[in-house]
Amino acid sequence: MSDWTRGYRTDVNYTPGYYPYLNPAAHAFALLAAGWRAPQLDQPFTYAELGCGHGLSVQVHAAASHGKFYANDFMPAHIASAQVRIAAAGLTNLEMSDASFADYVDAPLPKLDAVVLHGVWSWVDDASRNDILLFLRRHLKPGGYVFVSYNALPGWAPIMPLRALLRSGQGHDSATRARDGAAFASKLLDADARWFKGNEPARAMLDRLRGLPGAYLAHEYMNDNWRLLYHHEAAAELNAAQLHFATSASMRDSLDELVLNEDQRALLAGISDETARETARDFCVNPLLRRDLYLRGGVRLSKIEQLQQLNDTTFALSMPRARVGLRIELGGVGTVTLAHDVYAPILDALRNGPADLGQIRNAIGEHNDIGTTVNAVKVLVGAGLIVPCLPRAGVTERKVVTDRFNDRVLLESLHEAELDVLASPITGGGFRLDRVERLFVFAQKRNVQELAEMAWQIMSQLGEVLLRDGEPVLGDEANLAEMRKRETQFRAEMLPLLKQLQIL
Ligand SMILES: C[S@@+](CC[C@H](N)C(=O)[O-])C[C@H]1O[C@@H](n2cnc3c(N)ncnc32)[C@H](O)[C@@H]1O
């Protein structure tokens, strides 16, 4: 019997995760903002996720939109647990398969508008990458797009040896070995090992790894294969499936004014070859993970078409207005303070619910030329403060499905802390809530008046207590008092947004 794993570690299941950058509405906006024709999401569309893990992202996206979704992952345990939720939530527009990439090439699928693969390209062997290219050649429509993420060079260059340390760990499974390896790396750091000296990226990464579950580390670092790529290498490989680079799916990374200084912009402007420019750009921005959109024969929009479609796009807050400040943290790039007179009116306008670009433009008054408005919206999307929405048509039908899906997730999340996302038929994507907020939503959906009482009853039955400033709250009364405080805040800030997003 041949080794079906092809060097991928399958002895522990992956951690379930939701990734907003796999949302077709986010892709449509990124492509549109870069001047490419994007799939029309008010029309039927087809979408496949390859190597989907437990498939939480594809489930949320299938629940929240009217496309037809497909997904595969060769670990049967991932697909089996996903299928239980799909059946319970009645997600009839999603089919998940435990086929390998090699077998999925021959799956009887319709032609696809979109194929996404997150956390796959760098982590599988050459033969699997080749199977994926065959899949894309066979199944992606002309004009269709691919989302692909991979570990990028030069960002990973100073950090790469950490993987060797993780892989040196001992233990009976990949998760234990990875954690043991991380513990050993920490001992080296504590012993002043010279490799760590002056290597801030490696120290920061080790710090991050120490807080991550063993299952995540196992899938990330313990496979036989781990390929770091420069942009020009990824672009050349994907070109074998007739794909060309369109734009980063990360609005943040693609906004020159956010992530490049003037000298960098001038230097890059002098490079005429697009692939060489994008590769050089990675030396300036230095991302660890590239998240890109590639097109198979992309069609350019005229300026007029682009503006018309941007004008029709609706945006929503991704967190309550009260929690949004104008100082934004941009990872490795630093902190930026957004201009109050442009950005605060936009956020204030969205406080009352999703708004289209025209309404947003009115809100910024004297600065309301279209260029300023579009740019401000892109910055807010890039900063994760607002999200583009699906076209409004069909939202009532979509809400029937997201309600069923969210009921199921809320029920499961009573016992599974990692299930922290609910689907919105407005954004077509997931919305993260903390444990207590999910309990409030659970109670609210049962028309319970006293949210705090019900939430505390459930937590105490499960033997949990609240945390305040990282410390456990002790005793029934103190927990209930803290819970009531959180209920007041939830009603004032979160509840109105959940209603606008039609999660409630
Ligand atoms: C790092 S995980 C990423 C999972 C998911 N995309 C995510 O981001 O949460 C990679 C996934 O690819 C799957 N995989 C690896 N090799 C595969 C193959 N040859 N065929 C199908 N799935 C594969 C693994 O089972 C695993 O769930």
From TrEMBL:
It comes from the Bacteria. The lineage of its organism: Bacteria, Pseudomonadati, Pseudomonadota, Alphaproteobacteria, Rhodospirillales. Residues 49-144 form the Methyltransferase domain. Pfam families: Methyltransf_25, MethyTransf_Reg. InterPro entries: Methyltransf_25, MeTrfase_reg_dom_prd, SAM-dependent_MTases_sf. SUPFAM superfamilies: S-adenosyl-L-methionine-dependent methyltransferases (SSF53335). Residues 215-296 form the Methyltransferase regulatory domain. CDD domains: AdoMet_MTases. This is Methyltransferase.
